[in-house]
TrEMBL record, chain A:
Residues in NADH:quinone oxidoreductase/Mrp antiporter transmembrane domain copies: 118-382
Superkingdom classification of source: Bacteria
This protein's record includes keyword Membrane: yes
UniProt organism field: Pseudoponticoccus marisrubri
The protein, known as: NADH:quinone oxidoreductase/Mrp antiporter transmembrane domain-containing protein
GO CC annotations, alphabetized: plasma membrane
GO MF term list: NADH dehydrogenase (ubiquinone) activity
UniProt entry keywords in alphabetical sequence: Cell membrane, Membrane, Transmembrane, Transmembrane helix
GO terms classed as biological process: ATP synthesis coupled electron transport
Subcellular location, principal: membrane
Pfam families (UniProt xref): Proton_antipo_M
InterPro entries: CPA3_Na-H_Antiporter_D, NADH_UbQ_OxRdtase, ND/Mrp_TM
Location of this chain's protein in the cell: Cell membrane; Membrane
Role summary: NDH-1 shuttles electrons from NADH, via FMN and iron-sulfur (Fe-S) centers, to quinones in the respiratory chain. The immediate electron acceptor for the enzyme in this species is believed to be ubiquinone. Couples the redox reaction to proton translocation (for every two electrons transferred, four hydrogen ions are translocated across the cytoplasmic membrane), and thus conserves the redox energy in a proton gradient.
UniProtKB/TrEMBL annotation, chain B:
Membrane topology according to the record: Multi-pass membrane protein
Signal peptide: none
Identification of the protein by name: NADH dehydrogenase
UniProt xrefs under PANTHER family: HYDROGENASE-4 COMPONENT F, NADH-UBIQUINONE_PLASTOQUINONE
Localization in the cell: Cell membrane; Membrane
Protein task: NDH-1 shuttles electrons from NADH, via FMN and iron-sulfur (Fe-S) centers, to quinones in the respiratory chain. The immediate electron acceptor for the enzyme in this species is believed to be ubiquinone. Couples the redox reaction to proton translocation (for every two electrons transferred, four hydrogen ions are translocated across the cytoplasmic membrane), and thus conserves the redox energy in a proton gradient.
Predominant place of localization: membrane
Pfam families the record matches: Proton_antipo_M
Residues passing through the membrane, by range: 6-24, 36-57, 77-98, 110-127, 133-150, 162-185, 205-231, 274-293, 305-329, 335-353, 374-395, 407-428, 449-471
Cellular component GO terms, alphabetical: plasma membrane
Residues covered by the NADH:quinone oxidoreductase/Mrp antiporter transmembrane domain: 127-417
Amino acid sequence: MIALPLWIVPAAPLVLLALLLVPQARPALRALVPLAPLPALAAALASPAPAPVTLDWLMLGTELALTDTARPFLGFTAALWALAGWQALRLLRDAPGRDRFLACFLLAMTGNLGLLVAQDIAAFYSFFAAMSLASWGLVLQGGGAAQVFAGRVYIGFAVTGELALFAGLSLGAFATGETRLAAMAGPEVPALATALMAAGLLVKLGAVPLHLWLPLAHAAAPAPASAVLSGAMLKAGLFGLMTVLPLGSAALPGAAAGLAAMALAGLVLAPALGLVQAEAKAVLAYSSIGQMSLMALGLAAGLAAPAAWPLLGPAVLLLAVHHAFAKAALFLGVPAVWSTAPGALRAALLAALALLALALAGLPATSGAIAKTALKEALEAAPAGWQVWLGTALFAASLGTALLMLRALWLLADAPQKPDTAGDVALPWLGATGLVLAAPWLLPGGAAAAPDPADLVPPGLAAALALAALALVRSFGLRLAPPKAGELLGLFEAAPRPAPVLALPPPPRRGRTLVVRRGRGAVARPERGALAILGVAAALALVMALAPAGPAPVSAPPAPVTGEG
Amino acid sequence: MTELLPLAILMTSLGVAPAILAMPDDWSRLRTAVNLAAAALKLGLVAWLSLSVAQGAEFGLGLEIAPGLALELKADALSVLFLALSSVLWLLTTLYAVGYLEGGTDRSRFFGFFSLCVAATVGIAMAGNLFTFVVFFELLTLATWPLVVHRGSAEAHRAGRIYLVYTLGGGLALTLGAAWLYALAGAVPFAPRGVLGDLPQTHPVAVTAIFVLLIAGVGVKAALVPLHGWLPVSMVAPAPVSALLHAVAVVKSGAYGIMRIVYDVYGVETMQGLGLAAPLAALAGATILWGSFRALRQDDLKKRLAYSTVSQVSYITLGVALISPLAAVGGLAHLIHQGIMKITLFLAAGNFAEGRGVKTVSGMDGMGRLMPGATLAFTVGALGMIGVPPLAGFISKWYLGAGGLDAGQPAVIALLAGSGLMNAAYFLPILYRAWFRDPPADAVPKRRIGWMLAVPPAVTAGFVLAAGLLANAPFSPLGWTRFIVSLEYL
Amino acid sequence: MVTETSLLVTLPFLAALAAAAAPRAAATLGMAATLANAGFAALLARALLADGARETSLGGWEAPLGITLRADGLAALMIGMTALVGSAVALQAMGRPAPGRPAPAGGFWPLWLATLGAMNALFLSDDLFNLYVTFEILGLSAVGLTALTGSRRALRAAFDYLSAGLAGSLLLLLGVALAYAEAGRVDLAAVPALVETMRGRIALALVLAGLAVKAALFPLHFWMPAAHANAAPPASALLSALVVKTALYVALRLSLEGGAGIAPARAALAVAGSGAMLWGAWNALRAERLKLLVAHSTVAQIGLIALALGVAGNPADSTLWQAAALLMLSHALAKAAMFLAAGRIAEELGHDRISGLNRTELRPGAAEFAFAIAAVSLIGLPPTAGFVGKWVLIEGLIAREAWIWVALVMTGTVLSAAYLSRVVSRCLRGGPHVAPGARRPAWHMGDVAALGLAVGALALGLASALPFALLETTLT
């Protein structure tokens, strides 16, 4: 087998993007979009891993390599982009602005794949920025009011996050004198730098309270875009954090506590806010917040107890992979449901989706259970003080996820058919679903994991609660009034500006500042001239006559006419 | 023969200016041919000069015009930086202007002064002493004025008047400062690490006052707040002139002047010794923020770009004033980077106005569909301005940030971030409108954009990309600035 | 012995006689004489640069009895300036008038040649009495030039000029007589002796007052704007560029000879000069007619030169007076160009109201371009000689920490930029201010002369080393 050059990972989508700029080539090349991430997938699966590439002339000296941490990330990211690309082609077959969407899609893909292999700061930051900014185009696709609002919020957060990351990387790079990304986790990086980098990445991760963009963007974007946003790009934030935080090398109890607090807030808030949403994709998005918070909790534990990281790391990674596929599959399933009328086919689809939902909720014998077990076991090494609430938190997470999944399925079941959605959007979804369901056999040590009956409790409890709620709602004839999108930001509204009554141009400026106009000059008076001559002559004669003969300082201002004599 | 190279470079534009001025308006073919030939010739000569300078050659030519006063041309690495920028962009802007003004009036006058303008810029770039610098600096003022008022409307004349008041006022301050310095020092050649000797110790107050005068003089052209008022007003000029003002010649000369004064007249040690650097850096910082802030609310596209220039040019000043090699690399590189980015933006904006009659931000709806090429170029320029990697602006900001830390001023990072945020806030809405909104239903093409208008912004957008992507290559702007800084800070 | 020096004095007078005698050949003769004069001026300058300053006695009689011609760098510079400006003005006078305009009066050439001869003689004179005599000849021929168009306004202006000139001559004569009574001699070398005594100083004061009238130095400038604005363009150019300079030249001579003792006079010059600068600029800002604006600008510029002369200080320990000489030179070229250009503009437009310069059916032509270049020179922007002169002046003043004078010079510069931009901005009209089918004025000799002078003023800045080198050659 030919060794795959690593630079092809980001280059493949980028080249395709460049070719798509030629209008004549578009019809032929569009179909290649789902294939663009395949080189990356190949690189992730290649054995041995592709050799590092150093490109000195590129940017500030670019270095690409595939680390052990990055490898699984690259694998699931590439797979998700391929599936999402496939669905995007089908879903947006006739949509206006399709090519623009595909261009943004490819650029975001480039960024997402590239940042996983970038080893130097400039390249990482470039890819990260490309991903963030290009995703703006994914969010804005469709151009409705919801998309515009979501887009505005998204870009605000994205740019702010970028700048925080920039500031952090600058500080870090200067402190260490290094341009390698790995050095950012080193001991000489100042705390402020770490905090800024983490802030920038936590925006991407969707940690509370930096998550405000997330439900908006996921709900507004087309389903395949939501799938990669949730499945791949949130994980890019996680990947960044795993790279720049001094995990496993230094204990940062303060930072750990802060991160844990954010994670806990996410675990609580996600179901609370998600349950009242009226749109399936928004509910799924809140569930993503919850799940990402769980991963953040793992990172927090790693920060608090460096010794636990060798166990925690793989667990978080496992969780990330599991969530990536499961959540992406759920998002991809949304248009599949839309394409069907309520009936048997839809029921079958919903059943398949329910399987995914259960996997996400951590039902035994699913990837979710494996990941959760791994995390639970790893967290036992967390600081003693944490054990008090860790169990509760994990239980709340599972319960919250289960409730959200029920809510999402419920909403999907009720969703009206969208006739313009082609039936074949289900194909990529099927692929993703198959991957999720096969996961227990694919994941390392997955098949061997014994099912834990305790894992059944949260879904069961959730089902019971849901039934109770349903009964309550039905019996009292209540109806849910969904909240405004955007949480806190939804509360603000631009005050309407009074329209100008009459737009008049300002009066023309006639001021010629330097010109003074006046009437005719005075009439000539010859005698005045004579008097002036005589006067001046006399004055001059007087001055000269009275002046001392010796040298007098000429430059002594002012006029010596009066001063000397 | 080679020692006359600086003179030859100067004459390629200074020599053709009178010829073009004298041509009747309707000899457009000959005029275009002469213009482009001169621009191409100059580009070739500058390339030759750059190679020679890179190999360590030194060029110097003098003409004594009064006892103790000499016009002196010399070419060092810093000159080459500015020369390369102005000669490359001159060629492109000339091409663009030929297309832009096709069928217009007074074209001979326009192109004559255009050449004169570039001649002055070249003179500034190669000025070997402060006196020569002042001479060409004032010449630039004079040569630009007819271009600013080229449209001849009342508004254009008002802009011209304001331009003249500001720049002549600045020129006066510069002249006074320079004459004062000559009176004190006898002669003020430009030489790395300063030429003042022990003057700062013997005459600290005078040297400080001179610095203030000189910076006020060049600061007008560099659009330092509060001396920036002319720049947004002069956006009434035709697009190629805006490009010239903002990217090729005028503001660049101001920024270049600051470089020369700080590095080659005062020298880094004097700057620090007299405590002049920190106020200058603070002023640059204030300008960066104020320019960005004012840009936020402008609906006129060119005005928004003009305020953006106010802000961006001060990055150069900031890089110089921070007194750190890293910041200097950022500032010097930004001289080029800002030039290619801003010219892209202005040329694209000119295309919007020419092709669709769009001059406002609110009119940009759907421009991406109507004029994809120009909008793409504009996008590249705008993203570069924001500092999105891997474009040119990022490289500058990266070095500026590192330089700020190096100089013990971490606030620079906050400044860069704050300005970046504002840059995004005023550029991204334009991009949003252009790409994600639908064009108005009544959009009609005003005029077909010929290749002369379409190619230059595309080429400069390519430069923006290349300057960032290939930053580490030896002949990139960054590579060259590293070379210069190694001379100034050794 | 026939040398360049003596030829410079005699040739123009002889040519003037010939031109008066043969009116048909006057133009050819006049032009030839003017060019020959220019050639001799160049030869003189070259000889001076090679061999140093020299004195020639007319007819071999030595001072104090005979007439001594003293040719040093300053004189050569002034002669060169006269030759240059004169050639351009003569060129303009040679050109055919625009269609529909009256042909120039036949008296121009004899009067011009007489003026030229008088000026050359004046610059070469070495004693006060000769200066007085040359001033008289110059004054009369200049009055003739003013009156040449024969219009009522021109005659009125000529009369004003004549009266002022006579008043000035009277004071001059009084001063010379007093000086003779005091020192028993009138050559310039006697000036140091004169400043020793009170009567001598009064004599010098009277001479200076006379010069002030002739130079139209504030506050004795009242006659000048009308005279210069109403004369024909070539005459205005000569009067404004050259004739007023003669008085300043003599003032400079006195200052050079007088040494430290004449300091109060210098101070008076400086004060009057600043007043002139401000007052002239103020009036130029308000002027409604182009030529009036130019004339008022002459008042202001004369003020600047007087200021430079005044603050230059004792020539023994400062070379600032060289800056004043350079300013004189630069002003001569630029102002002549400006008057010629203004004449051409008025000719094309049919009037010279500033507010009416925006004529839509006429495109800006070469004359307006020349005006703009001349304006650049007058304001003192690089690379003109005006800039170099101002630079040297300011540098010298700063070295002496004479900040008030620096501020005044700067103010004068700002004001001159302000009033000249009134016109120059209109020279750049275009766009909606020009009708589609607007015509461009055809080329005339006047355009060539104006443009040539303006470009000369511009280029002189780059060649300033030559005048400075020339000024270094003095009699020791």
